[in-house]
């Protein structure tokens, strides 16, 4: 089996876990390749891995699986490495919350055994793409979680004009607007009052960020809709985000959002499912009085 691995900076408390993962994979005869950025981190922390190396932009279509080490941010970054190749992803959580990277450090060996024995299914998640008259994000114009328009150079509100399939929806007087996929409904959108949406619901969620008019609420629309946005405000510069990757744009730009023509394939092991993740990560059913 050929496996690619990507991770981010880690502290000493995680080093032993990461070394153990590489040792397990090597003992199983897995052919390993790590990202160039993670390779530097491993060398700096003296983690022995004896792996090949790839750079972002290389075609990863020949890999059987992709392992991420970190939190959800690491997995989201890995999605930009994988792109349209749809290599299945297994997220090992060495970070904090972990809605996407759900494998606990204590479960690594059992999870790797399930991976190698192919005892798993696929959880296919839709992505969104951003199209503009300018080339933004170096061609990595897609996101698994969300797209956002945010104010930048002022504390004043901005105005985001939103259209669905060419029809005017609303002018949002707010700090910004988020368009989330169902996967991203548990992220930034949720923190701004957006609803939780099941992963395969085939929707987009449009959520205003601190709207001036409190009657303006999040709205759920079909993901076969084409969304477009223009921006107005007291300054000329605004922030646009795709899964926390940022670009600065001006008020001449039109931002178009639609569903991507490829998906992210998350490896779903036998003991994991979406509802279990919700209960664990959001502490549903827990009461400190009991």
UniProtKB/TrEMBL annotation:
<feature type="binding site">
    <location>
        <begin position="145"/>
        <end position="146"/>
    </location>
    <ligand>
        <name>NAD(+)</name>
    </ligand>
</feature>
<dbReference type="GO" id="GO:0046872">
    <property type="term" value="F:metal ion binding"/>
</dbReference>
<protein>
    <recommendedName>
        <fullName>NAD kinase</fullName>
        <ecNumber>2.7.1.23</ecNumber>
    </recommendedName>
</protein>
<dbReference type="GO" id="GO:0006741">
    <property type="term" value="P:NADP+ biosynthetic process"/>
</dbReference>
<dbReference type="Pfam" id="PF01513">
    <property type="entry name" value="NAD_kinase"/>
</dbReference>
<keyword id="KW-0067">ATP-binding</keyword>
<feature type="binding site">
    <location>
        <position position="175"/>
    </location>
    <ligand>
        <name>NAD(+)</name>
    </ligand>
</feature>
<dbReference type="GO" id="GO:0003951">
    <property type="term" value="F:NAD+ kinase activity"/>
</dbReference>
<comment type="similarity">
    <text>Belongs to the NAD kinase family.</text>
</comment>
<feature type="binding site">
    <location>
        <begin position="72"/>
        <end position="73"/>
    </location>
    <ligand>
        <name>NAD(+)</name>
    </ligand>
</feature>
<dbReference type="InterPro" id="IPR016064">
    <property type="entry name" value="NAD/diacylglycerol_kinase_sf"/>
</dbReference>
<dbReference type="GO" id="GO:0005524">
    <property type="term" value="F:ATP binding"/>
</dbReference>
<dbReference type="InterPro" id="IPR017437">
    <property type="entry name" value="ATP-NAD_kinase_PpnK-typ_C"/>
</dbReference>
<keyword id="KW-0808">Transferase</keyword>
<dbReference type="InterPro" id="IPR002504">
    <property type="entry name" value="NADK"/>
</dbReference>
<dbReference type="GO" id="GO:0005737">
    <property type="term" value="C:cytoplasm"/>
</dbReference>
<keyword id="KW-0547">Nucleotide-binding</keyword>
<dbReference type="GO" id="GO:0051287">
    <property type="term" value="F:NAD binding"/>
</dbReference>
<dbReference type="GO" id="GO:0019674">
    <property type="term" value="P:NAD+ metabolic process"/>
</dbReference>
<comment type="function">
    <text>Involved in the regulation of the intracellular balance of NAD and NADP, and is a key enzyme in the biosynthesis of NADP. Catalyzes specifically the phosphorylation on 2'-hydroxyl of the adenosine moiety of NAD to yield NADP.</text>
</comment>
<keyword id="KW-0418">Kinase</keyword>
<feature type="active site" description="Proton acceptor">
    <location>
        <position position="72"/>
    </location>
</feature>
<keyword id="KW-0963">Cytoplasm</keyword>
<keyword id="KW-0520">NAD</keyword>
<dbReference type="InterPro" id="IPR017438">
    <property type="entry name" value="ATP-NAD_kinase_N"/>
</dbReference>
<feature type="binding site">
    <location>
        <begin position="186"/>
        <end position="191"/>
    </location>
    <ligand>
        <name>NAD(+)</name>
    </ligand>
</feature>
<keyword id="KW-0521">NADP</keyword>
<dbReference type="Pfam" id="PF20143">
    <property type="entry name" value="NAD_kinase_C"/>
</dbReference>
């Amino acid at each position: 089996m050929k496996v690619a691995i990507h991770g981010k900076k880690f502290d000493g408390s995680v080093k032993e876990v990461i070394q153990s993962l590489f040792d397990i994979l090597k003992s199983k005869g897995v052919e390993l390749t790590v990202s160039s950025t993670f390779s530097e981190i491993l060398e700096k922390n003296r983690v022995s891995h004896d792996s090949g190396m790839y750079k972002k932009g290389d075609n990863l279509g020949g890999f059987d699986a992709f392992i991420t080490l970190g939190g959800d941010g690491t997995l989201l970054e890995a999605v930009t490495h994988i792109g349209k190749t749809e290599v299945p992803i297994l997220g090992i959580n060495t970070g904090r919350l972990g809605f996407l990277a759900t494998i606990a450090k204590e479960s690594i060996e059992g999870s790797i055994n399930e991976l190698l024995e192919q005892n798993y299914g696929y959880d296919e998640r839709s992505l969104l793409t951003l199209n503009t008259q300018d080339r933004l994000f170096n061609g990595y114009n897609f996101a698994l979680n969300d797209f956002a328009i945010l104010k930048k150079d002022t504390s004043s509100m901005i105005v985001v004009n939103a259209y669905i399939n060419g029809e005017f929806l609303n002018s949002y007087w707010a700090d910004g607007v988020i368009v989330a996929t169902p996967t991203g409904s548990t992220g930034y959108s949720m923190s701004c009052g957006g609803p939780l949406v099941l992963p395969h619901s085939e929707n987009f969620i449009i959520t205003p960020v601190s709207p001036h008019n409190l009657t303006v609420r999040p709205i759920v629309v079909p993901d076969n809709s084409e969304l477009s946005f223009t921006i107005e405000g007291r300054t000329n510069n605004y922030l646009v985000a795709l899964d926390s990757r940022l670009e600065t744009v001006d008020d001449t730009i039109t931002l178009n959002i639609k569903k991507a023509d490829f998906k992210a394939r998350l490896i779903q092991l036998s003991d994991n499912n979406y509802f279990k993740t919700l209960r664990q990560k959001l502490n549903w059913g827990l009461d400190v009085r009991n």
